[in-house]
Amino acid sequence: MTSKPTPPDGLVIVDKPSGFTSHDVVAKMRGIARTRRVGHAGTLDPMATGVLVLGIERATKLLGHLALTEKEYLGTVRLGQNTLTDDAEGEITSSTDASRVTRDAVDAGIAKLTGDIMQVPSKVSAIKIDGVRSYKRARDGEDFEIPARPVTVSSFTVHDIRDAVAQDGTPVLDLVVSVVCSSGTYIRALARDLGAGLGVGGHLTALRRTRVGPYGLDAAKTLEQLQQELSVMPLSDAAGAAFPRWNVDTRRARLLTNGVRLEMPDEYAGAGPVAVFDPEGRLLALVEEQRGKAKSVAVFG
Fold first, then answer.
1. Is there a domain that residue 3 lies in?
2. What is the DSSP pairing of strand 38-41 with strand 293-299?
3. 103 and 147 fall within a common domain
4. What positions constitute the catalytic site (predicted)?
5. How many CA atoms lie within 13 A of 94 on its CB side?
6. Residues 62, 140 within the same domain
């Protein structure tokens, strides 16, 4: 009797196709990798394409920490129309001639949405309000408010501005933009708020995530490519790329795996999760500094 091959531990960087939910991609990967233990770090809306980080087997323990890292996007913002969902998936709720909006006004609007800002997420989003998903409340026709949350937009750059005419004949402006931001930032909310600030409304018509933390499109594979050949970034490589690295000797490695809290070098104080490796280069744990000691947040060794 042949034993079932063990699925590899590691990350898979997927170039998500448009029209797929993040859960759809996870379901597809469970079939490709032949394991139920697959998760993702940071949801991408169905309309969006690009980098979606999946974890297989023990690498699922990394995902919650990876989800908190910086992200980068390339997108198109349409000024002159609002939609129900703040993107092209929702029905248009208002149209306003945007042809007189100047580049200076656009730049001033973007400056207000750059840096540490308070953002109200889109109502049609997965955020829970009193335990119920926001999109469900919106679809049920409820009147509700989502509290603003602090997010950081490190950069918000306009690469091109194009005059266009919407299907209903409204003159609109399409902005090709790139955004680098913290976890939890909604790019469609940036489009909505930019349009609101300019008095013409706005929504997102295209979005491609180009980076999650250290993982970019250059490392991403399409589902078709992964079906042909499953390309997995080994657990140690994945953690080494995403977190500060702490190499320990054999004695410390043994103590750590036995649950002893090691004294943590000063250089890692306040660094967030740190990846600990043994002398053979195996990932033992993710730890955080707590009162000078290493507190394990995920154990692999």
1. no
2. unpaired
3. yes
4. 45 (nucleophile)
5. 14
6. no
Encoded tokens for 171: 């003159």
| Pairwise CA distance, residues 228 & 44, whole Å | 24
- Would you call 86 a catalytic residue per the annotation? no
Q: Is-contact 198 106, C-beta < 8 A?
A: yes
pLDDT tens, position by position, for the chain (301 residues)?
455 667 788 999 999 999 999 999 999 999 999 999 999 998 898 999 999 999 999 999 999 888 778 999 999 999 999 998 999 998 999 999 999 999 999 999 999 999 999 999 887 666 666 666 666 666 666 666 788 999 999 999 999 999 999 999 999 999 999 999 998 899 999 999 999 999 999 999 999 999 999 999 999 999 999 999 999 999 999 999 999 999 999 999 999 989 899 999 988 888 789 999 999 999 999 999 988 899 999 998 7
**What does pTM read for this prediction?**
0.89
Please count the structural domains in the chain. Answer: 3
The reply to whether 228 and 112 lie within a common domain is no
Which domain range does residue 288 map to? Answer: 243-299
Catalytic residue among 45, 87, 174, 278: 45
Name the residue among 54, 66, 57 with its Cα closest to residue 241: 66
